[in-house]
Amino acid sequence: MEGHHRRPLPALIAAVLLVFGLLAAQATPTTQPVPPQWERWVPLAGVVDVVGPRPDGKLVAVAAGRLHLVDPDDGATTPLGSHAAESHIAMAPGLDVAGAGCRFEAGEIYALERGAISRVSLDGTPARFVEPPAVDRFTGIAFDATGRFGNQLLVAGRKANRTVLFSIDCRGRLRTLTETAPPMEGGMEVAPQMFGNHGGDLIGADQTSGEVIFIRFDGTSGVLIRPDLPAGRDVGVRSVGFTPPGFIGRGGTAYVAGAGALWRLTEDRFSQVAIDENDLIVATETGRTTVVRCRATCRTFPFGDAAGASIDGHVTVVLGPAPPPVPMAGAQGTAIFAIVTAVIVAGGFILYFVHNRRKVRIPEPEGR
């Protein structure tokens, strides 16, 4: 009669879990969190771009034709030399260029000028770096730190309504990668390797079409995505930037330039949205921002606004301070680890022997 006395415990547990699940679902808020708003941080007349950080932690902004150091702690600005910078800038992250026998030193600034690229040292000393072939105008500048473009400087220009892309090594030797990429202008950046199928591609934007563009190291190009943002001259997508590896553990702050000021999104505001490492932040000239996440596929989600910012240049994300190192256990910790390991190993042997002793031994059949 055992079949008539089954204990109802599993069914009871399932019923309790179902009730709790329904209550939790009803208690869960259905409204989405409100995306954070960018903070108008430091007034800086004529600012068009901001990059960094330098080895000393400072940011570098270009405003009213001059370079400025910006202290991220208090926003204090000081001139960096007397160099007249025309437009967008890029900061070298410290890169050895294979086969060139030289490197782009960390913190050096490379600036777009009229018909040339200039280099500005850490102390603000300028030098003419290279004069690329003629284009209608330069439209973007970025460094490749992934190696897909050979750790080189990338400069984009507009010619016959198409994008021309040059790669330049640390000796100023130049190569044309493409002359037929879709139009793009403003801040551009090379995607981290974990950016789905487009890791290592150069990413830029075209405000007229509203499209985010990719260019691969072999010169092939196309449309990455068209986010649900305004499109058109003076309103469309203008700036891009990535959350770097390490962002989840360290947090960070995002910076953009526009409307006579530097704008920022601090770590506490970042925490209001489910942003991940290797995400792309896209901003329109009018300050609308969204996030593009590419893994197996690409999707977007809102990321707040910098209302009236007239954004230009790069979206620069700076990592927060590294967490304190885990203290070493020392001799006592080593001894405890050894004891625990010995107990686990001994326990394994004991379980093995007990298990073997409890095995049912089937007697061998008697011989006939």
Number of helices: 4
**What name does the CATH topology carry?**
Neuraminidase
On the 0 to 100 scale, the average pLDDT is 85
In helices, the fraction of residues equals 10-25%
Strand line-up across the major sheet: 1-22-21-26
Report the count of strand segments: 26
What is the CATH first-level class name? Mainly Beta
Short description:
The chain has 368 residues and is mostly beta strands. It has helices spanning 9-27, 247-250, 267-270, 330-357, and strands spanning 39-43, 47-51, 59-63, 66-70, 77-84, 89-91, 95-97, 102-104, 109-112, 117-120, 126-130, 137-143, 153-159, 162-168, 174-181, 189-190, 202-206, 211-215, 221-225, 237-242, 252-258, 261-265, 280-284, 288-294, 298-305, 311-319.
Structural account:
It contains four helices and 26 strands. It has a four-stranded antiparallel β-sheet with strand order 1-22-21-26. Strands 2-3-4-5 form a four-stranded antiparallel β-sheet, with no helix packed on it. The protein starts with 8 loop residues before the first helix and ends in an 11-residue tail after the last helix. The longest helix has 28 residues, at 330-357. The chain is 15% helix and 39% strand. The chain is globular and about 85 Å long. Residues 1-7, 16-20 and 27-31 have low confidence and may be disordered. With 368 residues, it is mainly β. The protein has helices at 9-27, 247-250, 267-270, 330-357, and strands spanning 39-43, 47-51, 59-63, 66-70, 77-84, 89-91, 95-97, 102-104, 109-112, 117-120, 126-130, 137-143, 153-159, 162-168, 174-181, 189-190, 202-206, 211-215, 221-225, 237-242, 252-258, 261-265, 280-284, 288-294, 298-305, 311-319. It has a single domain (39-319), classed as 6 Propeller (Neuraminidase), CATH 2.120.10.30.
